[in-house]
Amino acid sequence: MRTRLVLSSARLLDPGTGTFLPQTALAVAEDGRISALGEDREIRGLADSGTEVVDLKGAVVTAGLVDGHLHPVSGAELTHGLDLSHCADVADVREALAGAVRELGRGDWLFGWGLDPNVFGDLPVGVAPFDAVLEGVPAFLLLFDAHSALASRRALELAGVDGPRTFDQASAEVVCDEHGRPTGLLQEDAACELVERVAPQPTREERRDRLAAALRAMAAAGLTGGHVMDANGESLALLAELDAAGELPLRLRVAPWCQPGTDAEGVRELIAQQGTGGALWRVDGVKLFMDGTIDNGTAWLERPDCHGESTHAFWPDPAAYTHVIGELHRAGVPTATHAIGDAAVRHALDAVEKAAAAGGPAVRHRVEHIETVPDDTLHRFAELGVLASMQPTHCCDFTRADHTDNWSRRLGEERASRAWRCRDLWDSGATVVLGSDWPIAPFPPLGVMAGARHRRPSRDLTLPPHGPEQALTALEALRAMTVNAAYASNEEHEAGRLALGHRADLTVLSADPLTTPATDLPDLPVTLTTVNGRVTFRAETTG
């Protein structure tokens, strides 16, 4: 078999051991797998006229970095518009909106994203502070968690939303004041969709181009793969189109949603969908929700938050969720459950335990987010073989060490001190997988690993860390985006390590990520990214 790619003059970092291999070069065969490891001259001798040969000049090669939780298709759409993530208070938001309104044509919609509820301080989260700026303007402003949004008065009017509604999603809500008038705050997808469906939609070509651009940016950041936690709308068709055109620069594992109200036929359809895909993407798993978010009061907590909220599961009947988990488990389908609050996490683990006790194949289920859990929950992940999928940059950027942020104030000191227990879960024997949850937080994987290590706000690294005792080591953070990500996909035999026969999904960095200080890691240059032995990103200085 001919050689597709040769990387020479390299330092080969095995994330399994955290040590450099004695060899300095590797070759990739036409099938996209590592076919040889050796010295430069020996490996260069395997090249022919059609082989791409890259002299890395001492750069560090490691197994490709994989984001354990992201939303590329919806993210590419949601991040098109006014970026509000930099706004620190209501005045900042008002100024940003005013500038955007001046650029609008008559009747145009204003879309914004990344709005942090902390900007409201002690004020209720609603559109009222922006009424004067948005008068007559249809606006839809997505909050950073992507589980809630603000709609302007004009947008609510166009959507015919003039009071409370009832939804299948138990935590979905059109938030209203004491007189029954909408405040502009829409909780969860079902409520947001009331306004979204009357807003102008991008064309298919625009969706495709935005997705392709987002994926290219991910490859440039060093990502070789991602675990995609949705397959809504045209997602799968767009991925298939890019894949067929050779424009898919990441290997994607997709988990379609299973929402409350899904009947037996719907579950059968999800099971039948498993394994479908293309060269670089496949459907593998099902995503479910057990709750919403702490910041908007829709998480499921064992005790209410300080506002008396976050008391209900996402599924009106949690037993129906348990039943679905059992059906998917018996079919050998891995599940990924969004569970943020302690009650949600406990119920998700209970459901897996019940499913496993009933028999069936060994299945690697996951719980996503796990933002706060008590001590008696930690050990159950390892005991049940449930993976802990976490996003440490959420802790870094949306909470504060002094617990004055919205998330912490809602939970109170006891539960806020249990924020994102990455260290405790790791030490309990759980397999921890790290991701960004983009577009909720930035996707660059070096930033994700850095956040797991320093736990400081990325906007100001001089601020104190939130729960420094929960930090991971440099090697653990790397393993969580390589070795553990491969294990989560049941692919540890062919991915996540630098080894003969493993896929040549590789991330090349200008220096050793294990010795680079955590606060400097996000700025470490990415030299080269390959997927299946094909270059998906090359820095201009790379030969």
Automatic annotation (TrEMBL):
CDD domains: YtcJ_like. Keywords: Hydrolase. Signal peptide: none annotated. InterPro entries: Amidohydro_3, Metal-dep_hydrolase_composite, Metal_Hydrolase, YtcJ-like. GO terms for molecular function: hydrolase activity, acting on carbon-nitrogen (but not peptide) bonds. Pfam families: Amidohydro_3 (PF07969). This is Amidohydrolase.
